Amino acid sequence: MEIADNYKVDLDIYNGPVDLLLYLIKKDEVNIYDIPISRITEHYLHYVDALQTLDMNNIGDFLIMAATLMYIKSYMLLPKTEMKDEDEIEDPRTSLVKQLLEYKKYKETSIVLSHKADHWGRKWKRLYYENPLETATENEEKIPLEGVSLWDLLQKFSDLMSQTLFDVQGRTIVYDDTPVKDYMEAVLLRVQQSAPVSFFALFEGIRERRRIIGFFFGAIRTGKAE
């Protein structure tokens, strides 16, 4: 299936391959210093498969990480060679763990700074508003997406795609030139009509693959706009 250019999503550093890996480690509640590489690799490839369905612009970065994970997995399956000192055998996960810890620290620091900036931004904004209720009203109209990551949405999307039965059209090349803005408006309309609404309810009655993908991008863009 061919996707319109404006459907492609450029994931920033917070939604890149390292972030996905960190998300899976947290989700599976495993020790970051002792990653069960086989299980994590399997789950990672599942997400990469979903990303390929969405035709992401930077899918290559995820494929490189996938190749790295598969290499480490294969290396760890090899019989250990006999050495005079077992300490000389370096764990192939060491470099990956260092990268994850560095990214985790960077992300946590960025989140703290972002919250502080948001706090002071709201404080100064209230000082300049003649009617503080205007700000409160704006916030009440927003869709609550706190605590929901892109990977949570991607997992739901993958489940939706696997549960939905597609006709022959799903195997043909279909170009959808519908603006993402239209899908964003459709998502907001469904939320306003049935709030609170579940993720799967957003796609109720939609059977075409291109429209499911369009609604998914609409949900992502709507969340970012909020």
What does this 3D model show about the protein?
This is Segregation and condensation protein A. InterPro entries: ScpA (IPR003768). It comes from Kuenenia stuttgartiensis. This protein is mainly alpha-helical. Helix 2 runs antiparallel to helix 3 and helix 6 (150-163) runs antiparallel to helix 8 (209-225). The chain is built from eight helices and no strands. Helices cover 60% and strands 0% of the residues. The longest helix has 35 residues, at 94-128. It has helices at residues 17-27, 37-53, 59-77, 94-128, 133-140, 150-163, 180-194, 209-225. The protein has two domains: 1-141, no CATH class; 148-226, no CATH class. It is globular, with a radius of gyration of 21 Å. The model is unreliable at 1-13, 127-145 and 166-171 (pLDDT under 50). It starts with 16 loop residues before the first helix and ends with a helix.
List the main descriptive attributes of the protein structure presented here.
8 helices, single chain, 0% strand, globular, disordered N terminus, mainly alpha, 226 residues, 2 domains
Structure at a glance:
The model is unreliable at 1-13, 127-145 and 166-171 (pLDDT under 50). The chain has helices at residues 17-27, 37-53, 59-77, 94-128, 133-140, 150-163, 180-194, 209-225.
Question: What is the topological layout?
Answer:
Layout: H1 17-27, H2 37-53, H3 59-77, H4 94-128, H5 133-140, H6 150-163, H7 180-194, H8 209-225
